[in-house]
# Entry
Amino acid sequence: MAEPLKLRAKDAEDIEVLSACLQDALVDFADMAYLKDEQRFVLVATRFRWEDIRLDGPRATFERVLCGVAFEGVRRVRMRGIDAKRDQRRIFELLAIRAGEGALHLVLAGGAEIRLDMDDILCHLKDLGEPWPVFERPRHPLEEDR
# Structure
């Protein structure tokens, strides 16, 4: 049984670790919310378990797991390349989370981005439930063609 991941990020270095764990996570637009009164942005993602790839026998074993992520102290959320009405059923691929001056940037495939304006970094990630097997790991053709 896999050990569930539980992380807290409080600075840019921590965000790099969190970003690596969430690389290639799948996020349904409906599973993202800005709780303005609580100054919290939350999402539920299907995270690829990069930390637990197993090379047992002739074939590698890959897994995904549901995880919850909460960003605290969020003053404002801005989206680029996302239409709140048109994309209500869209699933986004999270490529990276980057720390910037007074903000975190959730970089999504296809040029979309979510900017979280915040004074201080505070983020929590927690795996929810048991992982399940998947047949392939995410691929990045541009990187692999080099």
Remarks:
- The chain has a mean pLDDT of 90.
- Residues 140 and 146 are 11 Å apart (CA to CA).
